[in-house]
Specification:
Number of helices: 10
Largest sheet: 2 strands, antiparallel
Number of strands: 4
Shape: globular
Oligomer: single chain
Order of helices and strands: EEHHHHHEHHHHHE
Amino acid sequence: MSKCPKCQKRKGRRHCPALIAEICSRCCGEHRLRSISCPPDCTYLEGESYQSDRRHEKSRTRGKKFLDDLGGLLSGENDFNFALMLHADIHLFATEAGPVDDGAILRALENLKGMLSPVYVPGGESDPLTAYLRDRVENSRRYAISPLFGQRDRRRVLDELIRHLRNATTDDSSSYHDELTRFFGPMDLAQDFGFWEEDLAALRGDVGPDDRHGAGPRRSASGLILPG
């Protein structure tokens, strides 16, 4: 049995009509409709569409409060999507590092807002969740800045989330984390949110300068960095 042509590591067990080759199930899941132009009648694509619908239905049911609260805070589509991706990253962090209490989530968002300010004043770098969120926002392709949604918009959304958490949580509570788990738990983060191996690698500290898709040194929008 030949190796998968995408990863060149695992054995190819699924016939890919787009590549005309046998690929592994992992690459099929990660690359379908992204770097692979799947034909609409692909057996595995049809199966994934059905499973995706089931995951989304379960997620919307279990995470109704989370979605309702987020929708009430943020009206714009770009605002909502940015907030949703942040929460997906928080959920991923918790699945690897263990549950985080509500106070830790709040502090991480406050730190992140400061790091995205026009004049960057160092602080919060030692907090693992803060460091992970900053790395993803600055380096992940999922957070690419567009002319319609820039740093000022990011800070505005963070302001709304921080205000909401301050009113809804306490340091030793885990109710907000539980809400995230109910919503994101049924999801496939790779298929439903575009997570890649680089996200897990960044969480584990395995990402080096060459893996950041050409990102330069971390700087504020204005390029100013003040000593602490």
